[in-house]
Amino acid sequence: xxxxxxxEQATVAFGQTLAKYCPSGLTIYLYGDLGAGKTTLVRGFIQxxxxxxxxxxxxxxxxxxxxxxxxxxxxxxxxxxxHFDLYRLGxxxxxxxxxxxxxxxxxxxxxxxxxxxxxxxxSEPDLELTLTxxxxxxxxxxKGHTNKGNDFVNKLSAAI
Length: 160
Fold this sequence. Notes:
By secondary structure, this protein is an alpha/beta fold. Helices cover 27% and strands 26% of the residues.
């Protein structure tokens, strides 16, 4: 599935649409060059649950935890969204020292930027999103890797 995103607003809006249909327990890899809109998309996703929340790239902390249990805009009963940015990860084993396995649970969604830096430690994603530059905006491609990921893409495709 491919979708054209004309600008930053469209990227945020698409992140909100993802959140609306996203089941709990999903792991999403985000690929794209620096500045492609990965964090912007994550901002839309998180702000759909927690409006006004400042969403920054966790480049130095590697992961930010957004607790959603108190959010009224949480139809899928997610408790957490974990936003990883592995750009500065020196070695995939660092994720083990951070307690990385604890983040992947049935009541959370993990959004992982630069997942290739965690190769060998991270398991296969449910969904892969790739953002690429185009003259008038960005193209986002979605690819399911598991039954849960494919079901999500089908549900999203029918809704848009």
